[in-house]
Amino acid sequence: MFDSGRDSREVLEWAAARLREAVAELAVGLRPFPPFLGMVSVQAIELEPPPDSVAEWGCVVVLPDGEICELELEVIPGPAGPVDVDQVDRYKPLELSAGDYVHFAAAALRAMGREVERRG
After folding, report:
1. What is residue 61's three-state secondary structure?
2. Does residue 51 lie within any of the structural domains?
3. What is the pLDDT of residues 26-39, one digit of tens each?
4. Cα 39–42–48 angle (5° rounding)?
5. The whole model's pTM is what?
6. Count of structural domains, the chain
7. Starting from the edge strand earliest in sequence, which strands make up the sheet with 59-62, in order?
8. Number of other CB atoms surrounding residue 110 within 10 Å
9. What span, in angstroms and rounded, lies between the C-alpha atoms of 109 and 30?
10. Residue 34 and residue 45 in contact, taking contact as beta carbons nearer than 8 Å
């Protein structure tokens, strides 16, 4: 529970921890999880970075387990030659500050909430 004797940093850490739980709970309950850009093989929702951030963010996504990470997609030649391509997707863990996590968690909750409402 919230303790008014905490300093601002502790409150931010507390909020980030509660949001982590909420994101995971909503993500796990959202089945089927939306495909990333219509790809059947990748289930993820892209999240916009903070508008005032100085950090360089790649493609930040929330996954079906509620994890927020960076998605790296690599296109490689397929077995039939250069016309045929395949993809490799990697999920890179992010070391987010509590403030950045709060931003991405709020974006994830909004995006997943819209999906829940869309489905009725």
Report:
1. strand
2. yes
3. 999 999 999 999 88
4. 95
5. 0.85
6. 1
7. 45-46, 59-62, 68-78, 81-93
8. 13
9. 11
10. yes
